[in-house]
Structures are given as C-alpha cells and as structure tokens.
C-alpha cells in the first residue's frame, strides 16, 4: 500500500468494516448499544463521513438517527436534511421529540450546488448533524467533503444506493 493510504488508515480516516480503530475526534452515541458496538464502540463519528448504503430509500433507515436528532436538536444544534428522497413528516418528528425549530431541509437541483451546500453545512459551527442523499460522488468530491467534515467536527451521514 502507498504511504499516504497507510497514514490515512492509521489515523482512522479510512475505516474498514472488519477493523476498529480509535480516532481523536469525539463521537456521538447512536442511542442503540448494538449499533454503537458495530461502529467501533463509540457511535457516530464526528468529523467524518458515514455512509448508509441502501437497496431502497424509505425502509426505516432514519430510525438509526432519530435518537441523535432528538439530542442534538434539543441542545441547540441544527439538523440539516439535504435532498431527502421523501418529504419528512414533521408531526411524526415532533412526536418523537425532535425540536423542529432546529431542523432545516434543503433541496438543490444542480450537483455543484449540492456539493457547495453540503460542504458549507459541514463547516458551520451551528451544525450538529447533516443527513444527505447525494447519489453518485466522485473521489475528489468525497475528499472535499471529508475535509469539510473534519473542519466542522459534526456528524454527517450520506444515504446512498448500494449500486453507487
């Protein structure tokens, strides 16, 4: 392996599912101990991109983030939804304890606008969680977003179809 890749793997910037490495960034508990254990015993990593690979959207994947949305929104942190495939049902989120005043939904039409918006959400100090549905991303775009996530030190989950 190249020296750069070895360095990234040692610093826990590239995570392999069968290996658990600690990182210097704090993490956010998922609210589910079994999931925390699968995520290296720490929960959702901050300052990193996490991917949730799906066969289809709308199969209950948002339940994975519901405890985090509740906690962050009540702590005054903004929860961004970027290009969700379905309109979130606000009454259900409120019933589950999410502070809707801290929820922002953004729709973009252009890929460049999407990347710019996602990058700025990740860098913002008001952000607690960014959930985004990006579709296909180029390697250079992922690196750009990773740097923004590190700078903002918040949680980012990218929901992507397994085929991308």
Explained architecture:
The protein is of the alpha/beta class. It has a single domain (32-161), classed as 3-Layer(aba) Sandwich (Rossmann fold). Helices cover 34% and strands 20% of the residues. The chain has helices at 3-10, 33-38, 66-74, 90-95, 111-123, 139-152; strands at residues 27-28, 44-45, 48-54, 78-82, 103-106, 127-132, 155-161. It has a five-stranded parallel beta sheet with strand order 3-7-6-4-5. It has a two-stranded antiparallel sheet with strand order 1-2. Helix 6 (139-152) links the parallel strand 6 (127-132) and strand 7. Helix 5 runs parallel beside helix 6. It is globular. It starts with a helix and ends with a strand. 25% of the residues are buried. The model is unreliable at 17-21 (pLDDT under 50).
Structural class: alpha/beta
Percent in strands = 15-25%
Order of strands, main sheet, comes to: 3-7-6-4-5
Task: Give the overall shape.
Answer: globular
Mean pLDDT: 87
The tally of beta strands, per DSSP, is: 7
Spatial gap, N to C terminus: 24 Å
Integer count of domains: 1
Could you write a compact summary of the structure shown?
With 164 residues, the protein is α/β, with parallel strands linked by helices. The chain contains six helices and seven strands, in the order αβαββαβαβαβαβ. Helices cover 34% and strands 20% of the residues.
